[in-house]
Design a protein that fits this description.
The protein is of the alpha+beta class. It has eleven helices and six strands. Helix content is about 65%, strand content about 10%.
Length: about 280
């Protein structure tokens, strides 16, 4: 019976990703499609473990094989997250070796490389990291706009939440549309940060800073060791994402919306497999 539940949950996750379509730029709907199918599988595994390797449900007997399979997969998932966690800890340790400076009233770790780079690196309270290449490239007003964007990421705790989402992404690459949904979430994350930054800075200034950075990155053919290290924590968005951000900034119409109803309904659906435990008898 347990192996049937695992198969049904995987099939449901697959079909959900294939058949359900939501309008783009709807953060809640995109998060629903990205998050709910993996959580359905996870909570099914958890319910199988709670039932144990013996007993029956609806007349079907449990088996040690399905119990062991669920246990092994959950342990592998935990190890995957732990590996990511220690990689980030190692990155933070290295980042903190760079000097802490005050740039436009923001405290930041400054890396001595020509590559234009800015990012929040860490978990709940991340470190702001800037490169000298970015500081030299932008005017003070443009640099302030970039820093306002980065502050928005910190205010929304994006490093913490997207650490978890990145872990889910790495475990569910086999599900349909994982990469396209991930790219959509990354774009929506940047648009949300732009929306907050525009409450403090001029739209044209922020758009100009994006164009300058994009042009500089295009001209850079090779990356040094430090630049490659930075790139690991600041994924390059496709060009159409950059165009979409600039257009939304210049039109002063940030295309972003979030529906808590979609998010909460998704969490409720993903928890349903746990209710199967009450029908299991030892």
């Amino acid at each position: 019976m347990h192996i049937l539940l695992i198969g049904l949950s995987c099939g449901l996750a697959w079909v959900t990703r294939l058949l359900i379509r939501f309008p783009k730029n709807k953060a809640g709907d995109t998060l629903f499609l990205f998050l709910v199918p993996p959580l359905i599988i996870f909570f099914t595994f958890l319910s199988v473990i709670c039932m144990g390797s013996s007993g029956e449900m609806f007349g079907f007997s449990a088996s040690i094989f399905s119990y062991s399979l669920a246990l092994v997969l959950l342990i592998l998932s935990v190890f995957s997250f732990l590996r990511m966690f220690f990689q980030m800890r190692k990155a933070l340790k290295r980042i903190r070796e760079f000097p802490l400076e005050t740039i436009a009233d923001f405290s930041a770790r400054v890396i001595d490389i020509d590559f234009p780079y800015s990012a929040q690196i860490g978990f709940w309270s991340p470190e702001l990291v800037l490169s000298k290449g970015l500081i030299d490239l932008l005017t003070p007003a443009e640099l302030t706009a970039v820093l306002a964007h980065e502050q928005a990421h910190r205010d929304y705790r994006d490093t913490f939440w997207f650490f978890g989402l990145e872990g889910i992404r790495s475990l569910t690459v086999w599900l349909p549309n994982t990469e396209s949904l991930w790219q959509e979430l990354l774009l929506l994350r940047e648009i949300r940060a732009d929306r907050q930054a525009l409450q403090q800075v001029d739209p044209l200034t922020l758009a100009q800073s994006l164009l300058k950075v994009a042009q500089k990155v295009t001209q850079s053919n090779t990356l040094s060791q430090d630049e490659s290290f930075c790139a690991l924590f600041h994924p390059n968005l496709p060009k159409n994402h950059l165009v979409g951000r600039i257009e939304s900034i210049l039109e002063e119409k940030i295309i972003y919306s979030f529906s808590w109803s979609s998010f909460y309904s998704g969490i409720f659906l993903s928890l349903l497999p746990l209710f199967l435990v009450i029908w299991h008898s030892s």
